[in-house]
Design brief:
Mean pLDDT: 92
Strand order of the largest sheet: 1-2
Largest sheet: 2 strands, antiparallel
Distance between the termini: 48 Å
Low-confidence stretches: none
Shape: globular
Strand content: under 5%
Number of helices: 13
Order of helices and strands: HHHHHHHEHHEHHHH
Helix content: 40-55%
Structural class: mainly alpha
């Protein structure tokens, strides 16, 4: 992409961004009068949780993606199923979402309800918690505009085929992001979230076992890495909780080593290998592998855009008293 084209894309994004903010009346200091201690309560809650459970940052980032990419950042993912409604969080792809992410949101909501009852939405809590946790583990800071409402519907049936899976071909993953008006470059930047966190062995076991030809694993893997994965996941059928870090080089630090790993065959998931092998995505992988500042700038812009995707405001939503249940 040439510099004039990049400038045009940024200009278009800026106008779209301003239109969203104007229409919805979101603002950075939305709670400055109604809940003055909002930022402090959020910081205290996530800091305590991250120190106690260091996987919370990656868990919350994944929860945020699964909430926003489907129908917008509306906290529909937080709703618990009832005998009358199977909610999003019980869709197959969401069953592995880590409990630490739900817990940090519950803790923040409880503290905020004591300080400012019926004021702060769960959607805003999830958006801010994600940004602050990413920053805490070394990632870029970006603005989070506040004033979202919580949606009144959450259905597992809406999920299938609308969230990316690691086994999907790259064209399908690109199409899912395109539905939300996200470009290929933005998709690659957001995929950099795999620089932290882990994946369960059953998400990639098909690539490291049961290959009839030699070698007995997907040839995109570094041989020593593949053998190490086979050993680490040997009992995954008996123990489905077995998992491996997405970025084996710096699993708890938000950096660009995830992209540097891919050309070396150190990607964990099939979709990771796809990013490097697909000609539409490879140039951005190479760019972010070379230049962490470029990755951080692109990730911050894409996260700011994602945080505004499909938001509900005014009468289109509510302020839940509990994040896991409708009022």
């Amino acid at each position: 992409m040439t510099k004039p084209q990049q400038a045009l894309c940024i200009l278009i994004f800026s106008f779209s961004f301003l239109a969203i903010l104007t229409e919805s009346r979101l603002s950075i200091d939305y709670y400055s009068k109604s809940c003055p201690r909002f930022n402090q309560i959020m910081q205290d809650t996530i800091t305590n949780k991250q120190i106690t459970s260091p996987t919370t940052a990656a868990a919350t980032l994944r929860l945020f993606f699964h909430d926003c990419l489907l129908n917008g950042c509306d906290s529909s993912i937080l709703i618990t199923s009832t005998p009358f409604n199977k909610a999003e969080r019980d869709a197959d792809i969401n069953l592995s979402l880590p409990g630490d992410a739900f817990d940090v949101i519950t803790r923040a909501k409880t503290a905020l309800e004591l300080q400012c009852p019926n004021t702060v939405s769960c959607s805003d809590i999830l958006a801010v918690a994600t940004r602050d946790l990413v920053t805490m583990v070394g990632g870029p800071y970006y603005n989070v505009y506040l004033g979202r409402k919580d949606v009144r519907v959450s259905k597992a049936a809406d999920v299938e085929g609308n969230l990316p899976k690691p086994t999907m071909p790259m064209s399908q993953i690109i199409d899912i992001f395109a539905k939300g008006k996200f470009s290929v470059q933005e998709m690659v930047a957001l995929s950099g979230a795999h620089t932290i966190g882990f994946s369960h062995c059953n998400e990639f076991s098909g690539n490291i076992y049961n290959y009839s030809r030699i070698p007995h694993y997907d040839a995109h893997y570094n041989p020593r890495f593949a053998e190490a994965l086979q050993k680490a996941c040997a009992d995954f059928q008996k123990n489905p909780t077995l998992s491996v870090f997405n970025d084996i080089m710096s699993p708890n630090k938000f950096d660009n080593l995830y992209y540097q790993n891919l050309p070396k065959g150190l990607g964990l998931l099939e979709s990771d290998h796809g990013l490097f092998n697909d000609p539409r995505t490879k140039p951005y992988v190479e760019l972010y592998a070379r230049d962490q500042n470029e990755f951080f700038k692109a990730f911050a812009r894409a996260m700011e855009k994602l945080s505004l995707y499909g938001i509900k405001t005014g009468r289109r939503g509510e302020i839940r008293r509990r994040c896991d249940a409708f009022n």
